[in-house]
Amino acid sequence: DSGVTQTPKHLITATGQRVTLRCSPRSGDLSVYWYQQSLDQGLQFLIQYYNGEERAKGNILERFSAQQFPDLHSELNLSSLELGDSALYFCASSRSGDSGANVLTFGAGSRLTVL
Amino acid sequence: ELKVEQNPLFLSMQEGKNYTIYCNYSTTSDRLYWYRQDPGKSLESLFVLLSNGAVKQEGRLMASLDTKARLSTLHITAAVHDLSATYFCAVEAQKLVFGQGTRLTINP
Asked: Partner of A28 at 20 to 30 A CA spacing, among A2, A97, B29, B79?
């Protein structure tokens, strides 16, 4: 157990639907990151939050949004789902924002299947 | 935009052999990380390299960083089956960008 908790572990839904993925970071970590892993695109950085504020943005689609709450947990919202959104979504956390070694601790992932 | 490229992407090798995975990146950075992912599992941190010439070793794995060449290597010595996994390098420049991963299969 890495200390980063992601729910749900598996999710099957239909095109056009909306889902929310949840992540609780490791105790003491202030940064949360979301990554999408698919066979053809590899591991793609979506977004980072640090202590509730958006810190960096990657290849996140407009249909996707995220936030980090005061208790530091984060949610990734995926809407108007398409078949191509099927992937493994990882959350990771780290202690620092951007200085020093920034080793990410990954959760087990949420596998999303869009039918 | 930062690009991180690994090669090879697939590597099948025999136990007892040595091999090297290469990680090239496109912009200046002095923070490079190596992660391991077992099939169906999450990513696990292996090494953190924070300066030019940094070398880290853990068991049969050794990682090095040459920031001038924008190159990191992960060397596997006398491979064993347990090292079969996908290995990712990741470079930090405002955000952490991962390479495509190298799927390593070690055969008895």
From this structure: B29
- How many angstroms separate the CA of residue A79 from the nearest CA in chain B? 24
Q: Is A37 helix (H, G, I), strand (E, B) or coil?
A: strand
To probe the interface with B, which of A2, A26, A29, A43 has the most B CB atoms within 10 Å? A43
Which of B107, B105, B103, B106 lies closest to B8, judged by CA?
A: B103
What is the tens place of the pLDDT at every residue in B48-85? 998 888 899 999 999 999 999 999 999 999 999 999 99
CA-closest candidate to residue A73, choices A110, A32, A45, A112: A32
Exposure string (b/e) for A100-114, b if CB count within 10 Å is 16 or more?
A: eebebbbbbbbbbeb
